[in-house]
Amino acid sequence: MTLRDRFWERYALDELTQEEWEALCDGCGQCCLLKFQDEDSGDLAILNLACTLLDIGSCRCSDYPNRFSKVPDCTQLTPALVGQFKWLPHSCAYRRLAEGRKLAGWHHLISGDRERVHRKGISVRSFAVPQDGVREEHYEDHIIAIIPIDD
Ligand code: SF4
Ligand code: SF4
């Protein structure tokens, strides 16, 4: 994989190669938690339940190439969707760059350490629960945050 030197500082999101775009992900797994949007308020409820494909230990998708056929709700992040990145956590590298912020010091591209996102408690490794083991009528008990989404 060839990444241009400090590409995240030198190029806009829509100028990145596919490899650079993928390398931006900090591996927190937060976007792979179940979420539901209130149709009236627009508020987003985030659950501590992990998508069926999320490997909670590594916080990585266990079938990334086939994720859209297996999980139709999975959202593909692209530069074109940059205006909608507000549903992502504030810590997310894509959201940070889209908002003109810098990558965090714990990000693996800065620190060179992919475990720091876990040690800092940014990732879902320590608290996520597999969605498959929870019945839908109990989903409400698993809400961990309500996020207002302003249009
Ligand atoms: S929230 Fe952002 S940085 Fe974290 S896993 Fe999802 S895309 Fe990657
Ligand atoms: S399919 Fe993979 S990338 Fe998509 S939400 Fe599930 S675990 Fe995350």
From TrEMBL:
**Span of the secretion signal?**
none
Which superkingdom does the taxonomy of this entry point to?
Bacteria
Q: One Pfam family for this entry, by name?
A: CxxCxxCC
Q: Which family does it belong to?
A: Belongs to the UPF0260 family.
PANTHER family in alphabetical order: UPF0260 PROTEIN YCGN
Kindly give the HAMAP family that the UniProt entry links to this protein.
UPF0260 (MF_00676)
Q: What is this protein called?
A: UPF0260 protein E4T21_06740
Q: What is the scientific name of the source organism?
A: Halomonas binhaiensis
